[in-house]
Structure formats: C-alpha cells, structure tokens
Amino acid sequence: MQWCFLCNLLLLALPCWGFLPNFWSQVLTLAWDSRTHQYLTERAILNVTLETLRASGTPENQARMGRGFWRAVGEVAKSNAAMDFLSSTRSDPVYHFDSEQVESATVMLRQFWAHTLLSVRANQYARARSSLGQLFHSLQDFYSHSNWVEMGQRFIYLHLLHPEEAAVPLAERDTPTCMECFSATCRNNLHPGLTNREQGYPLLTTGYFSSSPPKPEGKCSHGGVLDGSRTMGARGGINKDSTAPLFSPHHYLHQVAAGLAEEATAAVLRDLRDTVGVQPFLRLFSVKQVPALVFVLDTTGSMFEEITAARLRAHSIIQSRASGPERLGTFLLVPFHDPEVGPVYETEDPSQFMEYMENLMALGGGDEPEMCLSAIQLALTHSPPLSEIFVFTDASPKDAHLFDVVKALALDKQSKVTFLLTEDPKYTTESRGRRRRRKKRGLSPNRFDLYSSLSAASGGLTIFTSNSDIHRVSSIVEDNTAADKVTLLHVESEEDSTSLHSFRVDSSVTDVTLHIAGVLRESVLTDPSGQTQSLLSPGGTLAVCQQFEGLHRIHLLPPIQPGPWSLRAKSDGRITFSVIANSSVDFFYYFATVTNETHPGLARVEGSPIAGTSAFLVLSVTGLNRDTTFSHVTLLGSEEQSLEQVFLNSSSMASPSVEELVGWVESIPRVPFSVRLTGRDGRGNRLERVAAEMIHPTHVQIQVSSVPLLVPGHSTTVDFDITNHGPERLFSLTADDDCGYLHTTGPHRFPVGEREQFHGQVGLHTPAGARAGATVTLTLTVQALNSADGNYAVVYLPVVPPDPDTSPPSCTAALLDSSCAASCTNSTWSVSVALSDRGRSGLAALQLQRGDGVLTRFSGLAPTRQEGGTEEREVRLESGDPPLNLSQWASSQPLWLTYTSSCCSRRAELLVWDSAGNMKRCHLTSEQLSDRGTDANRARPVSTTRALLFIILFFFDKD
C-alpha cells in the first residue's frame, strides 16, 4: 500500500472510545503493539474453545476448526466493533463505561449476558453472537476507561457480572478524582484516595469524554489529543486504549489493562459454556461445522419422484457423515405448496430428520404457481450461515414479491440456493415438461427466471432436469455439502456460445468435481501438461464423466496434477460451470470504509458496496500452513474478465492458522463482480480460491440506526437511513419480517435528492404470547424506480421478557470438619453448603464441576419398591456426573448439602443454576470457602457446635 495513501488515512484518525476496535486502528494511530477489541475477542474465543475441545477429548487442531468457526468469531468481533461505529451506541457513555456511568453500564452489561443466555437456549445463535459481542465491548472498555488498574488490581472485577460479589465504592459526583496533567503522558494524576488503600478504601471512577455529559470540575477526562474535555480541569486523562501517548495518557498501563480485559472475556466464555453446556457452546461458534443439509420441497401431487430422490440422498449423506470426525450438522426441511408453507422441521438428530422425510407425502396441487420463495425465506431464517439450500420443485413462484427479501437473506448469510427443477420452460407441448400437472395455456417460458437470478446471485445452480433423472442429478447435494468444500471456479456463460474457462489446482486440493448445468454440444478438458479429454464421453485418462438431463458431473481422476486446467465448451443455451474441491484453505471477506465519527478503524459496509467509491477489502483466510502466502485479489466480471486487481497486506490475527489480509480498492466496479483470491502453496504452485456469489454494486445505501429489543405485548420502531449516491430520483421501500410483527412501514415511495438522506422507520408489535428468546428477522430493501439500483439491510431483533430474573443463586458455607494431616491419604475434610435463589425463578440444577469428593443430601421420604413403604433417600453427586435437577426442592428456604473429600484433594467447585439460567460458581477448599476468590464471604474452620449456631443464624437472617 502506498505510503502517501497511508498518510492521508492518518489525517482521518479520531478519538478512541475504548480499546481500538480492529486491526486497522493500529495503523491509523501508529500504535502497532496495541491490543484491539478484535484481537482480545478472537484470542479469548479461540483459547476457550480449544480448552473446551481438550476437556471433551476432541482433537484441537486450529487449522481444522473450520470456515464456519472463523465466520462465527468474526460475527462476535463485528458486533463488538460496531459499538464504536453505530450512531445509537458510539456516543453513549453507558455502553463504554465512560463519564462515571458505572452503575448504569453494569446494568447494561448484565442485560447483555441475560440476552446472550436467552438466545443460546433458544438456538438463536446469530442473535447470541451479536449480544455477546456487545457484552465483550463494554466489559473490555471497563479495564481501559476506569482506574481499576491504577488501584493496583491484577485480577478481574467480578462484581460487574456477578452482583453477589463484593463491589468497590464509586466516587461521588462532588468527589474530585484527578489532578492536573500538562503532558501527553499522565503519571500519578489520580487523587491518592482513589488508589491508595492507606488513605481509605479505593474509589472507582471512569473518565469523561468530550462534552456529553459535561465534565464536573476536578473529574478525570478520557484523554487523548481529540478529547474535547481534556483541557478542562482537571486536565489530562486516564484512558489505556492504546500504547500511543497521543491518544492514551495512561498508555504505559495498556498491556496490563488489555491482559485483564482478555482474562475477563475468557471468564465470560467459560461461564457461558458451563451454563449452557459444551455442545450448545460449540454450536454457538460453529466449531468443526459441516454445511447444513437444507431441503425446500414442493409437496404437490406431481412431486413423488423428487421427494423420493431427496429422501434417498439425505439417507446417503447421513450414513457418510456418521463415520467422519465432524459433527453431523444441522438438518432442516421446509415443505410447501399453495397456499401452505412449512412448518419448519429443524433438528441435529439424523434419525428425527429421516422421520420427517419419511412422513412427507406428495398430495393435491396440479396447477401453477406455488409458494416457493416463502419457503426459501423460512429456510434462510432458520438455517445457519454458509448453508447450502436445495429447492426441489416443478412450479414457478406465486410469491414473486419476496424475491428481493430472499436475495438479501441469502447474501447476508452467505448461503447458496440451488434449484432442481423437473420442468423445462423451453418445452410447451404435452409430451415434455409438466407431464403430470394440469397444463395451463399462456405459461411464460421465463417464469423460472427469478430462480435463475437467485441462484446466480448466491453462487448456486439452477438445473432443469427430468423426473427420471432427478435422483442422479441430486448427487450434487452430496458434493456440495461435503466438509472442507472450496470453490475453484464459478461462472455463467452467455447463451449459445463457445467459451474457454480455466481453474487452478494446488497441493492442498483433493477430490475435484466439475458441475456443468445446462446443455453441452462440445466440451474438452485440458490438464496442465496439455493432455485433453472430451467430457461428452463417459471415461478417459483425466476424469470420469456422468451425463444426466440438465447436468454434467465430472470427477478428476487421482493423482490430480497441480497447475492450470482449462475447459472449453460450446453450449445450447445458458450454461453454468462450477468447480469444487476439498481443501482446508478457504476465505471469506467484506468491504469496509474508514470511520469518520468517534473512533478510528474500519467499519464494515452492510449490504452491497457503492459503485465508483473507494473501499477496503478485508479477507480472512482459513486453514493455513506456514508456507502458504497470498498476494492479491482479482475482481471478476460476469464473464470472468478482470475488472481490478487488489494487492494485499497482512494484519495480525489471534491464530497462526488464520490470516487477515487487507487491500485498497480504488474504485468499486459499476458492474456485478465476484472475488478471486490468489497466492502460492508450500510447493510454489499458484493457489486460487473463488467466492461464488455475485456482488451487485449500487448507488443507494440503507443503514439501520437502531436495533431495539422486542417485549411481548409492546410496540417498537426500527429507525433507518437511506443515502442516495446517484441523481435525484424516486425510491420504493419493502419491509418484511418472518413472524408477521410488522404493522407500520412508513411511505412506500419517496424522492431522495442527490447526495441526500431519507430518514424513516418501521413499526413492529410483538404479541403478548411471543416466546422470549425468539429472534425476529427483519429485512429492509430499497429500490430506485425504473433502475436496477437497490440495496438491503437485515437485522435480527430479540424477544426478551419484560422483567427478567438476572440474579444468580447464592452459595454460603461453613467448614464443619478438617482433620487433614501431613499424610493426606487417611484424612478427610467436609463442608456444609447452603444454596438459595436470590431471584424469582427458583433453584434448577447443581453440578460438581471439580473435586474428587462427594456431595450428599438426604432428600427426605421417598416411596420404596414395596407398596406403601417409604425410606430416606440419599442423593450423591460426584465430579463428572450430569447436573442434578433441583426443581423438586423448590422452596423459599435454603437447600443444605455436605461435601466430603480426601485431604489429597483440597479444592472443589460447584455450579448452581436457577430456572432463568443464571449461574453461580461456588469454590470450596479444605481451609476456607471463597466465592470466586474474593475477600467476601470467607468461611473459617469451626466446630460442630459453632456450625449449628451458624445454621440457626443463617435461617434467622433469611426470615
């Protein structure tokens, strides 16, 4: 990247409101060794995930975490960084622990935690990643913006997310907190009373930023060259955002603050894992995720062969995955006809999915069209990102008005939609085409064009085949849902043309498969040595070829020679070429612009990029080894022509198996394009990967400025801004949600002047019976009338309870007996533990997380096996046992248990949950009990008599 351009970017640098948001902030501030929000988040997620895999006995190879994992991590990092970029959050001190808003910020932090838990428990993982990123941002900001580090604290502040933990007193509004500082580096500018234990208990404070809210005299500023409050008394600042003195007066404490922020982030992840369980935690981050198997099936009477083909293909995929190391993945089925759509059958149990498939019946129907796009919309909102969606039908869409919404969802989730159509629109006689549906005169031969447009935009295929060939054609389902599938070529040719295409094979690639959708008249494959083979013949020295109606499926024979391969073809009509292979090396990307608001960094461009403008292209390359390098990206037109080359520079990432690359795009092309990444493998072979989806540049932008929470029984609004980068013209707005909560959408048509904005809002009403934890997917699309210019925004709105229980259970203990001697073998210690719920939910579950002892309780009288008899039953819990259900003991009184252990194991940890999902960790030792290692609630050894007194006092206190 040219240095003159970098210098121009430095002029755009603006003040920091937290740790720098992402890698580009380091460039803008010249703080190369600063730890950013992105780095802290990625590193904590990676470390805790690997720790979880180790504990569960799963191999922890970082390079095999999968593309889905790194995309999920990127979603959390994106949500984290967006707190500094969104107009609704970037200037609010509550989101950043600024301006002494500690109590309000702590409440907000606990709400983020509650929303994350709610979403994970409802399997709404995209929404959970969003709220988790918000939580991480605020939590990390605390250590940079407060005086916690200056107090000499070297452990995390547990009270932020655990209200039962000891709290540090806050400085009052009239308490001076800082002294004057006249240099860039401010050492010892905090009042001694805030940091020195000898002068009283330290007080907690945070810095004020700019003029909102105004800083009282004598208070600390955030600080930094562009903080407007830094010149007001007391001058200076205390932020530790970076290692640059120009931006961070306490830059010398940055690494300490960053270390605590990372530790706190990891602690949240461990709490989350222990609260929701290992498998939901791994699903949250798509660890070793294989592509979801998603079927959208027309169930009208003419679809018997198609349903049978899908059923057999699903069975084959499940069988092959059962013997592999990865998880079986998500299975999803959406049936449809007219007017019925759904229900959505979603499961991770392959037996349950096959039961759904077996119960499908092809009944009724017989006419055109059907509710196909509505079914695809349901599939997209319920399936995970990076899914492959396969649509089986022989009817055109009745719901064409949903096309823009469905296309937006597919692009937002980077999911591919492939159509298997047992109807060829070119045939209009009774002898071909819809042989079993009642023919209607006047059916347009272009009635399937929306399907072709959707598959082309998302990187899928549209295949016109026959009922007799549908089972063999459906083999593409297995090919495209294989683990570690990458794309080497994806291009669509013009009608009735001769075309020449090329793709490259590198040393990391295996199992290369070519799919050619359409009708070939001639086709020749050439390997790097010049050897050729016709693809119209079944066999040869280079490949095995299968020819079905509408599809050619070609497998290259091993050993596959690395280097450039070419494919020359002459077609009858439009044809699509797709070359896929197995490889761990893949990439995903986004466009970004330099923010010019309150924080230096790269803000992700949502929706389609703006044609003719400059932007950054940011890529994450997964599955790397140390010998693989990448040099540039080529923006390819629809005919594979090069529109622009973008040279890449590397940035730092949390893992050596993933590389983040950034390039400068001088001008976004004005025509649709795709992205091809180029580099070299360890043997010097040229390496190429292609993103199959087509990007459609535009001159209009739509941005959602607020993402509210949905409360059952209440109404709310979502604000958005539309910016016109073209001439003055008329626009139309379409709003759609997957739950039917929309009730007002504002003007449907409106003019917007050149370089002007239109501010609007849509209203939603959440029914009183809406399920807490659900997510409503709202899709907004804007279109210029009489023009192809359009754009989209997709937001995920969580449904939350009106008054959630956020108080965790409590754990109190007294050491009853400890006879530990020098030799631990024959001695034991025991402790009495009282559990109670502080909130309204009641105790739900208990688990002995760590410890070699036994947790016991006499549960009272229980029926014996003999009729009418009872006995006193003892409940025993050991480490490794599943959580014990406590709901049967729901009571306002504490639940008492006894933990007994050999003195050779002197520590134990209990996990206690309430019915709302709040968790409490209870740490026990043979010498004392401490909740999370704080000074509060420590228990000392006591005699049996004193223990009884302790219990009496405990009950007296509760009453």
Describe the 3D structure:
The chain has 959 residues and is α+β, with helices and mostly antiparallel strands. It contains 16 helices and 41 strands. Strands 17-16-18-21-20-19-22-23 form an 8-stranded antiparallel β-sheet. A hairpin with a 5-residue loop joins strand 10 (520-526) and strand 11 (532-534). Helix 3 packs across helix 7, helix 7 (254-276) crosses helix 8 and helix 11 (372-382) runs parallel beside helix 12. The radius of gyration is 31 Å and the shape is globular. The termini are far apart. 49% of the residues are buried.
Note the topology.
Elements: H1 3-10, H2 23-29, H3 37-55, H4 67-82, H5 102-121, H6 125-145, H7 254-276, H8 278-284, E1 293-298, H9 304-322, E2 331-336, E3 345-347, H10 350-358, H11 372-382, E4 388-393, H12 403-413, E5 416-421, H13 449-458, E6 462-464, H14 470-473, H15 475-480, E7 485-493, E8 498-505, E9 510-517, E10 520-526, E11 532-534, E12 543-548, E13 551-556, E14 563-571, E15 575-582, E16 586-594, E17 602-604, E18 615-622, E19 629-636, E20 642-651, E21 659-665, E22 673-680, E23 686-695, E24 700-704, E25 715-724, E26 729-737, E27 742-744, E28 749-752, E29 757-765, E30 775-784, E31 790-798, E32 809-818, E33 828-837, E34 843-850, E35 854-863, E36 870-878, E37 884-885, E38 895-902, E39 907-914, E40 919-925, E41 929-930, H16 944-958
Parallel strand pairs: 1-2, 1-4, 4-5, 5-6
Antiparallel strand pairs: 2-3, 7-15, 8-14, 9-13, 9-15, 10-11, 10-14, 12-13, 16-17, 16-18, 18-21, 19-20, 19-22, 20-21, 22-23, 24-25, 25-29, 26-28, 26-30, 27-29, 30-31, 32-33, 33-38, 34-37, 34-39, 35-36, 35-38, 39-40, 40-41
Helix pairs in contact: 3-4, 3-7, 4-6, 5-6, 6-7, 7-8, 9-10, 11-12, 12-13
